[in-house]
Amino acid sequence: MSSQDIPEENLPAEQGRTHGVPKPADEKHPFADPGLPPHEHRIQDIDERAAKRSERTVALLFTLSMLATIGFIASFVAIPHDEAIYVWPLGHINAMNLALGLTLGVALFAIGAGAVHWARTLMSDEEVADERHPIEASPETRAKVHADFKQGAKESVIGRRKLIRNTMFGALTLVPLSGVVLLRDLGPLPGTKLRHTLWSKGKLLVNMNTNEPMRPSDIAVGSLTFAKPEGLEEHDHGFQNEIAKAALMIIRLEPEAIKDKQELEWSHEGVVAYSKICTHVGCPISLYEQQTHHALCPCHQSTFDLADGARVIFGPAGHPLPQLRIGVNDEGYLEALSDFEEPVGPAFWERG
Known about the structure:
This protein is an alpha+beta fold. The chain has helices at 43-46, 48-78, 95-121, 139-155, 162-174, 176-182, 239-246, 261-265, and strands at 84-87, 91-94, 205-207, 224-229, 248-252, 271-275, 287-289, 294-296, 303-305, 311-314, 323-324, 326-328, 334-336. The chain is built from 8 helices and 13 strands. The strands form 4 sheets. Strands 3-4-5-6-11 form a 5-stranded antiparallel β-sheet. A 4-stranded antiparallel β-sheet has the order 7-8-9-10, with no helix packed on it. It is elongated. 24% of the residues are buried. The model is unreliable at 14-18 (pLDDT under 50).
C-alpha cells in the first residue's frame, strides 16, 4: 500500500521534516543532486491494528528470549557435565554443551530479532537529509542533539508501547544472568579432596594390566609395573579423576641398592611404590632406566632417582615423587598401609 492510496487525513504528520529537494548542476556543483524519493508510509503507520500486531510480535520475541535464558540456567544446573546424547547427524555430543549453546543462541537471537522488527515496523523509517557541519560541538549542535534525542525517544513509541518496553527490559535483565551463572564453575572450592586418594590401610595393589592383586613374587628385580587401588574399575563414573591421583609405579630393587632410609622402611623386600604422577605438571611417568634406577617423565624430561627417595636429579619438577607405604597381608598380597603422606601431582597451590 502506497501513500497515494491513503486518504490525506489518515497519513501521519511529517513533523516538520522535508525530503531532499532536487538541485540542478551548476559550475560549482557539476553533478545534479537528485534529492530523496517520496516517502512511502508503512501499513503500521496508518493502521493501528497492524501496529498492534507488530508490537505483539516484538513482545513475543523478547518473551522467548527470557524463556531461553531461564532454560540456559536450568540446563547448566540440571544437566550433568559429562552426559552425552546422540544427535543425528552430529553423533554423540555433550548434552550440556548442546543445551547451553541452543538456549543462549535463542536468547540472543530473539533480542536482536525483536529489536530489528521493532525498528523496521514501529520506529520512524523516514530518511532525512542533513548538511555536514564542523566537528566541534557548538551550542547549536548540542541543542540539536538534545532535540534529536527527544524526537527519537518519541518516535520509538517506547512510552506508548508499554508491552514492548516491559518485555524488552525483562529480556535485557535476564540475559546477563547467563554469564553470572557460568561463574558457578569457579566453585565450589576443592577443599581437601585433592590432598587424598583412594589409597588407605588394607587396600590391595592391583596390577593395571592383569587386574589381579599383586604378590612380591610377581615383581622381578629391575622391573616396572603399574598398579591401582583395589575396587577401582575403568567403567566407574569417576575413574579418570581417581586414577589421576592414585596411579602407582611399582619397582623392585635390591634392598642394599636403596639409599634413602625412609624409602627402605616403607618398602617390602625391595618392592617400592611411588606415585606415577609427575610433580611438574602432572604427566604420567612411564620410562624407567633399570641400571640407574631413574624414572623419566616424557613430557619435560624431569628425572627422579627411585633408589634415593625419588628425588629430582634433572628437569623442572619441583619436588620428589610421593611414596606409598606398603606391606603384605596375611594372604601374601601387597597392600597399602596408609594413604600418601603428601599430596600427589604438581604445585601445591593447584591441589586445594
